[in-house]
UniProtKB/TrEMBL annotation:
Keywords attached to this entry: Mitochondrion, Mitochondrion nucleoid, Transit peptide
GO cellular component: a single term: mitochondrial nucleoid
GO biological-process terms attached to the record: mitochondrial respiratory chain complex III assembly
Protein location: Mitochondrion matrix, Mitochondrion nucleoid
Tagged with keyword Transit peptide: yes
Alphabetical list of PANTHER family matching this protein: UBIQUINOL-CYTOCHROME-C REDUCTASE COMPLEX ASSEMBLY FACTOR 2
Annotated coiled-coil segments of the chain: none
Organism: Clupea harengus
Record has Mitochondrion as a keyword: yes
Protein name: Mitochondrial nucleoid factor 1
UniProt cross-references to Pfam families, sorted A to Z: UQCC2_CBP6
Amino acid sequence: MSATRYRRFLKLCEEWPRDESKKGRDLGTFLRQRVAHAFREGENTQLSDPEKCDQMYESLARINSNMYREKFPRVKDTSFTGVTVEECRMLLSTGNMQQMDEEKKKGLWKTMMERFSTKPEETPEKTPEK
């Protein structure tokens, strides 16, 4: 019976999309790691709680098939803040997160000093034409 569960989870992992903008931090990668950890011995793994395993599989399969998205459709594709899906993806991308970490490492004082100490660009004085 464990072999069947293992194969079902492997199929689910294959179907689960990966988000390339979140390298190593997306749900698909996490799911694959958890399945590998839970089924360390592959089809020969003895599960301590098969019922819980089946419930977990069914829950993940419903999420993957967008059951809840179809059951409870959204009126708008924005959140309460007005941020669109594409803007959220951009903000949560790995590159943007690294940039935010670098800003955080600078410290609040240094960041504030950089923002407020920038001198406005000097405009060259116009000379009267002759």
